[in-house]
From TrEMBL:
InterPro entries documented for this protein: FAM86_N (IPR029426), Methyltransf_16 (IPR019410), SAM-dependent_MTases_sf (IPR029063)
Pfam families xref list: FAM86 (PF14904), Methyltransf_16 (PF10294)
Cited PANTHER family: HEPATOCELLULAR CARCINOMA-ASSOCIATED ANTIGEN (PTHR14614), PROTEIN-LYSINE N-METHYLTRANSFERASE EEF2KMT (PTHR14614:SF130)
Keyword terms, alphabetized: Transferase
SUPFAM superfamilies: S-adenosyl-L-methionine-dependent methyltransferases (SSF53335)
GO annotation, cellular component aspect: protein-containing complex
Residue stretches making up the FAM86 N-terminal domain: 10-94
Family: Belongs to the class I-like SAM-binding methyltransferase superfamily. EEF2KMT family.
MF annotations from Gene Ontology: transferase activity
Annotated protein name in UniProt: FAM86 N-terminal domain-containing protein
Length: 344
């Protein structure tokens, strides 16, 4: 991997606030193990592509993450006997003199995910995995894997009406809107705090497109129990739906998706009944298939879902894994992608 690629990887991992233990430090530090002039130049580039990145200045990562990142860099450079540039020391001191209140992030932090088309999705996420009684306020590995699948299957999505179940804070859906060309796209969730945070992230990213000269259209909050918010974006009807799975069969929502997508929704067996009811309802209404991406933390839980789905005349077919292109993936936790169709 050449020098440009190494810096690009460093930027990718840092901006998405990847656990620093998962950086390939030996490869990255080779950038600075060279002649004095080149080493100093690369250290300045490191700052420009990480803590001084324009996105970080406007939407800062968690302050403690930035501080520890530079502390670790300084330690590793000094251990290798590499002279540290003045700008790197100064930036570290500047960060130490800040606090989270000054940064204005509080219990939320920003993360920036670089997509395969080199656009960025910026998300405001909770700093804790479980908050307000839900896991939906931070991004998960499955959403990144679903984004990879969408990138490899753009032609399949083109021109279709897409419904995402359990959108969480919006990574997969916003990625789809960045590089796919659906007819309509519906985010959905049911937790009030998740819907609010999802709206924050959708507006942040779509309005940034508008700032770049791309039409975002008008937006409005709906009074409907189903439609939480809607807008037109690049000619696509984009909506955020309040869609509790347990209510779908009775409420009969007036939407007709061609394809359903979801990531990391197969984890709680107490929800399987309503989730499968939702799939059966839409598939009977004409939905072609559902694409589910699952991080397999418990094989028994996944097998239970597949068995229950089969009992409702659903066919669950495992698909080839998409090539990883969106950040770090935990190789110890397998990810599986499934196509779900009706046998009726």
């Amino acid at each position: 991997m050449n020098q440009t690629d190494q810096i690009s990887v460093l930027e990718l991992l840092f901006l998405s606030a990847t656990n620093l233990n998962n950086f390939k430090w030996d490869d990255l530090l080779a950038l600075f193990d060279c002649n004095y002039s080149e080493s100093q130049e690369n250290q300045v580039k490191l700052l420009e592509r990480t803590v001084n990145h324009s996105l970080v200045k406007k939407y800062p990562l968690k302050l403690s993450y930035q501080q520890y990142f530079l502390k670790l860099i300084l330690k590793k450079l000094e251990q290798r006997g590499i002279e540290v540039c003045d700008q790197l020391y100064q930036k570290y001191v500047d960060l130490l003199n800040k606090d989270d209140n000054e940064e204005g992030t509080g219990s939320y932090q920003y993360k920036h995910y670089r997509l395969p088309n080199n656009e960025y999705i910026t998300l405001s996420e909770k700093t804790s995995i479980i908050s307000d009684g839900t896991t939906g306020l931070c991004s998960w590995q499955g959403a990144r894997a679903l984004t990879n699948w969408l990138w490899e299957n753009k032609s399949f999505i083109k021109g279709k009406n897409i419904l995402e179940l359990g959108s969480g804070i919006g990574l997969a859906g916003l990625s789809l809107l960045s590089f796919c060309d659906p007819s309509n796209f519906y985010f959905s969730d049911c937790h009030s705090e998740v819907l609010k945070q999802l709206l924050t992230n959708v507006k942040l990213n779509l309005e940034r497109c508008e700032d770049a000269g791309q039409d975002c259209g008008s937006a409005m909050i709906e009074d409907s129990n189903l439609i939480f918010w809607k807008t037109m974006h690049r000619g696509i009807d984009v909506r955020i739906l309040n869609l509790p799975w347990e209510s779908v069969v009775d409420d009969k929502p007036n939407i007709r998706p061609d394809v359903i997508m979801a990531s990391d929704v197969v984890y709680d067996s107490s929800l399987f009944g309503s989730l499968i009811d939702t799939l059966v309802y839409f598939l009977k209404q004409g939905t072609y298939c559902a694409i589910f991406v699952c991080t397999v933390r418990n094989e028994t839980t996944l097998e239970s879902f597949i068995e229950l789905a089969g009992g409702r005349e659903l066919i669950v077919t495992e698909l080839p894994e998409a090539l990883p292109s969106l950040g770090y993936f935990d190789s110890d936790t397998p990810i599986k992608t499934f196509r779900i169709t009706s046998s009726l």
